[in-house]
Amino acid sequence: MTFSAHHAATGETLAPAYTDATPAEIDAVAEGARQAAEAFAATAPAVRAGLLEAIALNLEARREAWIDRAHLETGLPPARLQGECARTVGQLRLFAALVREGSWADARIDPADTTRKPAPKPDLRRMLRALGPVAVFGASNFPFAFSVAGGDTASALAAGNPVVVKAHPAHPGTSDIAAEAIRTAVAAAGLPAGVFGLVHGAAPEVSHALVRHPAICAVGFTGSAQAGKALLATAAARPELIPVFAEMGSINPIFVLPGALAERGAAIAEGLVNSFTLGVGQFCTKPGLVIGVAGATWESFSAEVAKRAQAVAPGVMLHAGIKAGFVRASAALQNVEWLAEGAAKVARVSAAEFMVRPELAQEIFGPYTLLVTARDSAELMALAEHLEGQLTATVHGTEAELTAVPGLFTVLTRKAGRVLCNGFPTGVEVSPAMQHGGPFPATTDARFTSVGTAAILRFVRPVCYQAFPDALLPAELQNANPLGLMRLVNNTLTREAVR
Amino acid sequence: MTFSAHHAATGETLAPAYTDATPAEIDAVAEGARQAAEAFAATAPAVRAGLLEAIALNLEARREAWIDRAHLETGLPPARLQGECARTVGQLRLFAALVREGSWADARIDPADTTRKPAPKPDLRRMLRALGPVAVFGASNFPFAFSVAGGDTASALAAGNPVVVKAHPAHPGTSDIAAEAIRTAVAAAGLPAGVFGLVHGAAPEVSHALVRHPAICAVGFTGSAQAGKALLATAAARPELIPVFAEMGSINPIFVLPGALAERGAAIAEGLVNSFTLGVGQFCTKPGLVIGVAGATWESFSAEVAKRAQAVAPGVMLHAGIKAGFVRASAALQNVEWLAEGAAKVARVSAAEFMVRPELAQEIFGPYTLLVTARDSAELMALAEHLEGQLTATVHGTEAELTAVPGLFTVLTRKAGRVLCNGFPTGVEVSPAMQHGGPFPATTDARFTSVGTAAILRFVRPVCYQAFPDALLPAELQNANPLGLMRLVNNTLTREAVR
Question: What is the average pLDDT score of chain B?
């Protein structure tokens, strides 16, 4: 089957036409990755860092064409795409720096003790190593940062895993530009071409065939719950089980406490409307649920949110499917109080209602949020407890209020990967302390993140070397510590050589 | 249904009779764990360390009764049980020390930068926190170290997770003694009783009901592939996906290269027979596959293995089911050359034969190993490539041989969690550098280990705190670093306070 990208603003078909990858093509790309895996995993960290830096430079060299094409295919404004481009090359360089420094590999050395009784203690050395070829499925809403050259690819390559990207069918041309930048860097580094592969496809079967392929050792996915769960089921049916990290979105609850509303209700309303309409509401961290306690401050806050939301101008959505989904999902919401029904939509229900209508807790991708009125703080707590897993959860409160509700933070810490005070969840930093993940159904495994340096941990596994001659060990584990890593030697962190 | 333990040596029924936990009982124990979870997760590290140390002391106080009962129920000799008891209390103390030191929590702090353009950078702090109640399924072959108070329980409690153990039906009395030691320690620490629970059951449904229970947030399992895969399927069908770490055994290949056999073939044969018959062959790291290259050294090695195996005295197996399984599985092996058919069994086949008969690659739990003759070193390499995921893989070679086969190590590193030079895989150290895990089907997730301090990582997830007042942060993340942890501050490892 062939397919094309479409001009996001006009719907017009964009050349060229793309063809769903055939089973033979998918097999060839995955086999290429398999064949490249050992050589790539064995490269020195500096080689992988150099590759990531070269990809960043290549992308910068293609910056204008890349942004132009992405603007056509996604409708995202050039200023946003410039920022996302900077973020994308920035995260490639962040992983390059992580790999150059090297301590992420968690090298551990338990030296031998030949005199131990009753049995001598063998020399054990352990570090994190590449898993093997990673299949990456990008998202339509971040055509750079969560796509072909995005965080999944950067973190997988950093660890030494070949990557096979299934390009998002909504931005195939943008994907091709990034793929060419990566391929050029791979070739220039003298690495096997199989270190990076890309397949196109609009048919779900392309994605499933890739996940089923025996050469694939892990999956990184960002997208809808429906697509994520379908790929997860395919992975679970493989003869060889592999790790799947799927980030499937969230409604990102915000709790606004009465004191905060009294103190700065209008500012919170402004921040909220900015956050849930940012990027036309097309972020997985978009706050889609706002909970407050009934009363005068909540009423004036609701009115302020309504007023500001009504004033929001329409934006271009990413593609026809997302736009249609937004229209359908918001039209389907019955028996809610509509506070704003323009380009940005705000509905309101009682907490009691929310807790018995699971459809109200479904993510609606687009400029929509739901205000929920709790009778009192006990009902607000009950609602917090009622929530399922989330990427983020936020509390707005005065200092005194925040201190007075430790129980709320305890519950939210259990429900979400990132908990915020007096902020908004959109805007995900790419840094060591970021956690972009959360309990199911936000992701398939709350123990991992897809953003920040810790994202590399999804695609590595520990290997223990017992009684190896020093020369046969990876450099990370050799006595002399030639890479100067922080290592756990005899249960003590040190950069010293062994013995 | 009721069931009893049996005297391993005589088959005689041991009092008392046990009853399968009812659904209501399972629910009560799991709900107790849920209710204890928040308070336990919030305890100071020193409280959890104290709990683990108290459990160790309580077990030591019950040592004689514990060993006596385990000897009856498992047939394991007292000397072995004394060693396993020491290992078990040792690993409780190891996790206590890990928690007291505290840096395992991987605290990361990215301070705010309010002057950053275009947007200010928020304060982000991230650490590993408890997942919630963990269901633990112990193994019959380690009634102490992989059972009620074993590594799964120790690592889960260390992180602040309540534990619900499903006692192994082959050693319920041993399990009760350990459970009482833990309960006593939990009560003495003033912790909620739900921090630890135990259910009995011989019917598989007890295990499945526990895995299905909504209060359970993670599963740790050690046992057979059949039972592990069944529990995995039950977990995968839950509405809320949870992490399952199941260690399901392995055949632990040993490659013996011709030079090593020429140099010390008799010693290797002796070590091999000791290793595969140790504990009556009832270890998940038992070497069940030995690969060599056809020739005179291989023939004399095979003869030496046969001779030593024939001399092995019969041992008492863990229970009637394991004994029957061993007899059945070894009797079912057709078209192999039997080198030893006494208490210890050794068969031999060609590598070509091995690679087309998948039943030969199945684990046979008990004193059995299979010698496989490769035509040449190319076929030996092909066989290595043919293997599925393993807990361990070993190479015996001279220094020159080991250096000459980097490709073999590369393949084995991909196949196994622990790779050994010139050793035997039985004897698993409990230490920071140990990796007891491996690619499927050895375990369900090669990224984790069930032995060693890193076992704690199975039962924790990162939580990021954005813009929190210092006083509301966990101590691990507070500016002053009151616990003195090694933390990643501004991407640099330090024990210094922030600012």
Answer: 97
The answer to whether the CB of B106 falls within 8 A of the CB of B127 is yes
Residues A297 and A371 sit within 8 Å (Cβ to Cβ): no
Average pLDDT, chain A: 97
Each residue of B83-124: pLDDT tens digit? Answer: 999 999 999 999 999 999 999 999 999 999 999 988 899 999
The Cα B350–Cα A210 span in angstroms is 35
Label residue A115 by pLDDT band (50, 70, 90).
very high
- Give the whole-angstrom CA distance, residue B237 versus residue A482: 47
Provide the CA B448 distance to its chain's centre, in angstroms.
Answer: 10
Which residues are paired to B464 by β-bridges? A418, B126
Q: Which of A418, A429, A461 sits opposite B110 (nearest CB)?
A: A429
Residue A492 burial class via C-beta count within 10 angstroms: exposed 0-12, middle 13-18, buried 19 and up = exposed
Can you give the pLDDT at residue A237? 95
Indicate if the pLDDT at residue A499 is higher than 90: no
pLDDT in tens, B70-92: 999 999 999 999 999 999 999 99
* Token code pair at residue A299: 């009423």
> So what's the ipTM on this one?
0.97
Distance from CA of B307 to the nearest CA of A (A): 26
Q: Helix, strand, coil % (nearest 5) of chain B?
A: 45, 20, 35
- Residues contacting residue B199 through CB under 8 Å, at least 6 positions apart: B21, B25, B26, B29, B164, B165, B166, B167, B206, B210
Distance between CA atoms of residues B165 and B149, nearest Å: 9
Which residues on chain B are in Cβ contact (under 8 Å) with A219? Answer: none
Nearest-neighbour CA in chain A from B1: distance (Å)? 33
- According to the model, what pLDDT value does residue B499 have? 83
The answer for residues whose C-beta is within 8 angstroms of residue B478's C-beta and 6 or more apart is: B470, B471
